[in-house]
Amino acid sequence: MIIAIDGPAAAGKGTLARRLAREFGFAYLDTGALYRAVGLSLLKAGIDPNDRDAAIEASADLDLELLADPALRAEATGGAASLVAGIPEVRANLLDLQRNYAMNPPGGKPGAVLDGRDIGTVVCPDADLKFFVTASAEERARRRTAEMEARGEAADYAAILRDVKARDERDMKRAEAPLKPADDALLLDTTNLAIDAVFLRAAKIVRDWL
Ligand code: DC
Hints:
It contains nine helices and five strands, in the order E-H-E-H-H-H-H-E-H-E-H-H-E-H. The chain has helices spanning 13-24, 32-44, 52-60, 75-84, 88-103, 119-123, 137-150, 157-173, 195-209; strands spanning 2-6, 27-30, 112-116, 129-134, 186-189. It has a five-stranded parallel sheet with strand order 2-3-1-4-5, sandwiched between helices. Helix 1 crosses helix 9 (195-209) and helix 7 (137-150) packs across helix 8. The protein is globular, with a radius of gyration of 16 Å. Bound molecules: 2'-deoxycytidine-5'-monophosphate.
C-alpha cells in the first residue's frame, strides 16, 4: 500500500506521516529531507543555492549522510531546499529514489508513507490513498515559532510568518511539480484540529481501505 501525504511546510504532514507509518508498520520517507540534503550540500560547500549547475550535480550524486546532519532542519537549509526544488533536473534526479522507495519499502514492509509537495500528483500518482494537509499560514508560523522556542532557539514570529508565506508562494507558483492537491486527495485542514484528531481521522480512513 502507498500513502501519499502532501501539503505546505509546518501543516503537520510529517507528524501525521510518521504516526501512520508506525501505526500500520509501514516505511516512511520524508521527501523534503532529500531536497534539504541537496540545499545543505551547497551551503556546506559555500556555494550559492541559486547556482543551478551545482544543485543539479549535488542531486545527481546525493550524499545520503547529509540526511543525518542536524543542520538539515535549520531554517536556512529549508530556504535553500525550496530554491533547488524549483529546478526540473534536480526533481528528476530525485524521482527514481522516491519511486523505488514507494514500490519496494525497505525491510520488506507491507506499505510506504511518503510526504512532500508532489507525491500524489507526480511521484506516486497511483498511490492508494492521498491526503493533502493544510493549515493557515498564521497557525503554521505559530507552530514553527513554538518548535524553535522549545529547542531553546530565538524565534521571531513576524519573520517566520514572512518566511512561511514566501516559501508557500515559491512552492505553489513554480512551473515544475507545484504544490497543489491531487484531484483525488482527501483534504485535512489542521488549523483548528489537534494532531491527535488529525491522526485518528486519517488512521480510520487507512483502516477502512485495508
Ligand atoms: O517539507 P520541507 O520543509 O522539509 O521541504 C523543504 C523544501 O523542499 C520545500 O520548500 C519544498 C521542497 N519539496 C518539494 O519541492 N517536493 C517535495 N516532495 C518535498 C519538498
